[in-house]
Amino acid sequence: MHPIQVLERYYNHTSFRPLQEEIINAVLENEDTFALLPTGGGKSVCFQIPAIIKKGICIVVSPLVALMKDQVNNLNEKGIKAMAITSGLSAERLDTLLDNCIYGNYKFLYLSPERLQQSLVQDRIQQMNVNLIAVDEAHCISQWGNDFRPAYKNINVLRRLHPTVNMIALTATAKPDVVEDIMKELDFISPKVFRASFYRPNIAYIVVEAEDKLYKLEQILKKHQGASIIYARNRKSTIEISQYLSQKGFSSTFFHGGLNSDEKQDRLYAWTHNQTPIMVATTAFGMGIDKSDVKTVIHINLPESLESYYQEAGRAGRNEKKAFAVILKSKADEQQLHNQFLKTLPSMDFIKLVYRKLCNYFQVSYGEGVNSVYQFNFIDFCKAYEFNTTLAYNVLQLLDRNSVIYLSQQFNQQSKVQFIISNQALFHYLDTHSDLAIIVKSILRTYGGIFEHLLKINTKLVANKASLPEDVIIKALEQLQKDEIITFQHSNTDSELTFLQPREDDKTINRISKIILQQHKLRQDQITSVINYTNNDSICKSVQLLKYFGEDDVKDCGICSVCISKEKQKKPANSDLKSIKNAIITALENEPLSSRDLANLLPYEEHELLNVLKLMLEHHIINITPTNTYKLTHT
């Protein structure tokens, strides 16, 4: 079958995006291939189509469980047999799945780089008829790359298992030195390298100084109506911003990792079908979602790196119509960025301390502990040693990323409750169980929809509301379950921890110290680059991004905040000071008005109005009232 026929049959497209066909042909010719395709460039098609055409199975290595599951579901819906081997599988189940890949005519096996370290997985892959090895998010293999994962360095074991099979490496964001490092690590020989330009001519990159960010958000959404993504730093912010917009009459919802799968699916469906056009989300949102008509992507906080910003901003304007990527910044933002991403980088001494205490906590003897698994309550661990939770969590993330431990996280999933009787029957029950009434009412007033869905509840929060100890709440919930009033799922742990290396205290950490310090330095450089980007008002925003990613022969875009500002400075002012002054006087004759009221009322740029207001104050034509409005000075 020809690639275009596969594209039409399985993907419902009649033509390829730029570079896709050339990449597919290189893979079909058994060449080692590197594909640098920015967000929205259609990377998955580049390895899926040749793998469908070739006999055998394609091994796909990816670090993103959610993306693996999405791609497997999409392939299965097309009638193409695919599976993902993720965490939490029993040895018996893993054995069965790998057998299915050998004998069951599967076309795709998705797995994490950590899975490749298991001898069982390697043995079974060796028995498979592998037609292609695809390495997604390939920048993770480079120590200089964004989001480096040492486990990615084990991918070249696939070269030993299948030395004649070619490989394709794919990434959306990689600087030139990272590209070279990836190809070296994967042992590419005479590779075919395809680099799509990072230039997005239809996206206007805007950086706006805004002390009142919510007001500015309103202005932008009113001016540029259509599907929008607003990125916020944390879950709480997504809820608060979405509620604010809804109160202002916008159709808005929020999305974060704490929602259950049904809530996520419902909200995603409503947004993708433009029923709820505004999505306020944490930065994980948008991965693998190909919605073409996003008009604006707005960052209400400074992004953590230009790599992540480019990917997130790139979710706008995939239909090639004009779109806007906006960063709202205030004076406090730079310090917040430092506090969140640099002050929370743990020192080597602290990493060693946490690792030692972790081993002590589970009574792991020196030289022992490999593959031992423990139920782990993170909060209790931090309390036991009086650790700062943010710093301790970052240490665990580093240990996980560097394959010292494996942390299967289920944070905030300790307790789930659903009422399984009617409201009327519940209150009839409480008539004879009055001791449970305050607990039940506290839950009902905190969690809407608990009759319809199995919801995660915070037992500490319920305990505080009911003014009772938490263990009393747990016992009450157990009683309610026994009496068939609720479904109750409860776990005393919030994660499962596996030690991957023997305990050798400081020696264990010293082996990875160079990599950790290098990653700390990379993080500092990334923060500096973001601050430089947002503060540089002399070079075109698009040019700044392109140069960061190694493109030098670039021209000004003409549509970013810097280019627009330059264009305004060139043109003679459309409105002279006198006409603006007269318009302000006319507006203030009726009532005192704020600068915001005047900006909404008059057809002038905000900065022009502010300059004229300043001059009018100096000349005592107007003055400021105690309520911060302007009024005319009558003589």
Task: Give an account of the 3D structure.
This protein is α/β, with parallel strands linked by helices. 45% of the residues lie in helices and 15% in strands. It has 26 helices and 21 strands. The protein has a seven-stranded parallel β-sheet with strand order 3-4-2-5-6-1-7, sandwiched between helices. Helix 2 runs parallel beside helix 3 and helix 24 crosses helix 26. The longest helix has 30 residues. It is globular, with a radius of gyration of 28 Å.
Q: Can you lay out the helices and strands and say which pair or pack?
A:
Blueprint: H1 3-11, H2 20-28, E1 33-36, H3 43-53, E2 57-61, H4 65-77, E3 82-85, H5 91-103, E4 108-111, H6 119-127, E5 130-135, H7 157-161, E6 167-171, H8 176-185, E7 192-195, E8 203-209, H9 213-223, E9 227-231, H10 235-247, E10 252-255, H11 261-272, E11 278-281, E12 294-299, H12 306-313, E13 323-329, H13 333-341, H14 348-361, E14 373-376, H15 378-385, H16 389-401, E15 405-409, E16 415-419, H17 423-431, H18 437-446, E17 455-456, H19 459-466, H20 470-482, E18 486-490, E19 495-499, H21 506-535, H22 541-548, H23 561-570, H24 577-588, H25 595-601, H26 606-618, E20 622-624, E21 630-632
Parallel strand pairs: 1-6, 1-7, 2-4, 2-5, 3-4, 5-6, 8-13, 9-11, 9-12, 10-11, 12-13
Antiparallel strand pairs: 14-19, 15-19, 16-17, 16-18, 20-21
Helix pairs in contact: 2-3, 5-6, 13-21, 14-16, 14-21, 18-19, 19-20, 24-26
